Amino acid sequence: MKLRRRSGVAERPATVDLFAPALPTKVTSVKPVPLIVSHPDPQPAPRPRSAQLWYAVVFPELKESEAAAMLQRLGACALQFTSLVSIEMPNALLLEIKGSVKLFGSLPDLHARMDAAWSGLELRAQGAIAPTALAALWCARVGKRACIEEAGALTGELAQLPLGCTAWDVQRLETLHAMGVTRVGELLRLPRSGLARRLGPAAVLDLDMALARQAAPRRAFIPRERFRERCDFETEIETVVYLQKALEPLVERCAKFLRERQAGVQALELRLRHRVKPMTRVRLGLASITGEQRRLSDVLEGKLNRLELSAPVRGMELLSGSLRPLSAASVDAFAGGISAGEAVPHLVERLRARLGETAVYGVISVPEHRPEAAWQRVQELSFSVTGVRGREAGMREPAVSTTGLQDEVPRPVWLLEVPLPLSAELQPAPHGGLILEQGPERIESGWWDGKDVARDYYIARRVHGARQGARWWVFQERRTKSWYLHGVFA
Amino acid sequence: MPREAHIDPSLALADILADARVWKLKDTSVNLPPSRPVWSTGRSALDARLPGGGWPTASLVEVLLGTAGLGEVQLFLPALVECQRRAVVAPWLVWISPPHEPYAPALAQQGIDLSRLLVVRPASATEALWAAEQVLSSGVCAAVLLWLQGTDDRWLRRLKLAAETGGALCVLFRPERHRFESSPASLRLLLTQGEPDIHLELVKVQGGRPGPVDFQVQ
């Protein structure tokens, strides 16, 4: 009853009245659309041209199992029309085409072209155009080939759509059905506050976004391109040498693929197929991002040389990791193949390919009093040239700033991984083989992590025996009074 | 009408440069041999005895040791710091199969740039020699320090050749027992414990005079 009376008010358009207090705009990435005010305005503002135009395409027959992969592929294909493509699971793509209309001639031309793009698929595609993504999606879902250009026309165009186009959950649709509401237009005539109470604020927000009263930013689809190419052999290959020959064209194509995209990779995988045995996977990590054919083939060659084929190979496949943008600095015109910036990573890769990943490392100094905790191995090496430039420009920090060591406290060049207990004749004693030259330096630390030490460090020299003359860094455990060798002043 | 020179944009730069029609203003293939700087040892008494006044680069320096811990690395640290600071293109130091872990705080204290230090630990002596050859001939390292127990003359020649290609300072540490074997190294040093101090002797100096050096190592 109440509804009827409200809708009967003539001088105020019903929709304007009910939806007036729109939610505050939280996301500002999309140009805000002026809201329609509730009080009667003597001079209505000129209707703005909508800032966006969306094309939605729905594939109703898309199987759920292959939807994600398929939409990725279709999304990459849709990038030919616009740079902003968004995937709407489970079966739709959204394209922002405002800027593309002029490029493709006219909107009907573009619309026809986009519809034609899906005709090659064995899937039914339903496309629609509207100023908001949601409105376009709703039209597309019900198969209405709409082409709405003006935001002001949205209310009228959407009114006839069945409520099923919103893809709301069943419970909400049933509630609405029980209320006798079956079309979007009827829903828009309901009072806003009551709607929010019965259906939840999300439904009201959806309506606002569809009618361009609320900004609706969307996540842009970024294609995840990878290189992936297969090659099958006519005869089985049994030796690594022939395998390398066969791999050359694959690597060449991979390098070309990367070059065309101005991209590089940091990981590669080579899969070798056998007749019976499971596939052999060879994973390669590169020390830095690269797209250079010589580096790629060198690393592959190094890895293959160490590989023992478990069975003859029938075919192989080369896959790249995710593509990364290449920095312009790594291109040197006259270096003849490998540029100066790439030479060190290339060297490290070759060493690692033959000697193993952990055999090549760097060391860093850690601000810590316990000698064994004051350094660490690092596998991730930094090859940037900027660090060197900074050093050249005199920005070099004092070498002891992080260690907290004073210049007058000498430290040995070699540190033993585990302190070596000194036998009785090696201990500093009146008649022993060791003379304490400097010390003690007391190091007492680490009570908080259970590896606490309480030691007195000395610099000592061997005076007798086989290692005569060697300068050692020794310490006496303060609790047990036993002596250990911890470093060598080489 | 002259035929338009067309170059496929997807070609690598190297391929384009290999094209005979492309004239290179700067040709790296006819480059002059790299100049061979000498790194000062940081001790005037030792500098005076070495040809050129310092450790020779692009050659092999061999250090024969009585035992580890005689300050043998200390002997080269001033030169390593110096060459890291001065080499603009290749400030990398590579230490191959050191007998113990290089202690980072000590090296940082002496002025070594740790971010440009690479430690390589090959499983065998052959692998170590291979790694040293690769590193030396790559030409991207300022200095290579290599520790070996024993090796043959042929490998040492290969190392020297690689060092000559790359132009780096190459120091090989070996036990004292190899003293009387022939070696292609252009400079051979012997470090032993004397009475009461460490004793440094130049066993072989190409272009210089061998004999003991009177100075304090540590």
Using brief descriptors, characterize the structure shown.
heterodimer; A: 490 residues; Dna Ligase, domain 1; five-stranded antiparallel β-sheet; 14 helices; B: 218 residues; alpha/beta; Rossmann fold; 11 strands; 26% helix; elongated
Overview of the structural elements:
The complex is a heterodimer of chains A (490) and B (218). Chain A is an alpha+beta fold and 490 residues long. Among the domains of chain A are: 54-210, 2-Layer Sandwich (Alpha-Beta Plaits), CATH 3.30.70.270; 228-335, Dna Ligase, domain 1, CATH 3.30.1490; 414-488, no CATH class. Chain A is built from 14 helices and 16 strands. In chain A, strands 5, 6, 7, 8 and 9 form a 5-stranded antiparallel β-sheet that branches. Chain A has a 5-stranded antiparallel β-sheet with strand order 12-16-15-14-13, with no helix packed on it. Mean pLDDT of chain A is 77; it is low at 1-28, 36-47, 334-338 and 386-403. With 218 residues, chain B is α/β, with parallel strands linked by helices. In chain B, strands 6-4-7-8-3-9-10-11 form an 8-stranded mixed β-sheet, with helices on both faces. Chain B has a two-stranded antiparallel sheet with strand order 1-2. Chain B is elongated. Classes of the chains: A alpha+beta (490), B alpha/beta (218). At the A-B interface, helix 11, helix 13, strand 10, strand 11 and helix 14 of A face helix 1, strand 5, helix 4, strand 6 and helix 5 of B.
Summarize the structure.
The complex is a heterodimer of chains A (490) and B (218). With 490 residues, chain A is of the alpha+beta class.
CATH topology call of the domain at 54-210 in chain A: Alpha-Beta Plaits
Q: What is the residue-mean pLDDT of chain B, rounded to a whole number?
A: 81
- Characterize the main sheet of chain A: 5 strands, antiparallel
Summed up, the domain count of chain B is: 1
Kindly provide the name of the CATH class of chain B: Alpha Beta
> Radius of gyration of chain B, rounded?
21 Å
The CATH class of the domain at 54-210 in chain A, by name, is: Alpha Beta
- Structural class by secondary-structure content of chain A: alpha+beta
Low-confidence stretches of chain A: 1-28, 36-47, 334-338, 386-403
Profile the largest sheet of chain B: 8 strands, mixed
Number of strands of chain A: 16
- Name the CATH architecture of the domain at 54-210 in chain A: 2-Layer Sandwich
User: Helix-strand pattern of chain A, N to C?
Assistant: HHEHEEHEHHHHHHEHEEHEEHEEHEEEEE
Distance between the termini of chain A: 98 Å
Distance between the termini of chain B: 78 Å
The level of helicity of chain A is: 25-40%
The CATH superfamily label of chain B reads P-loop containing nucleotide triphosphate hydrolases
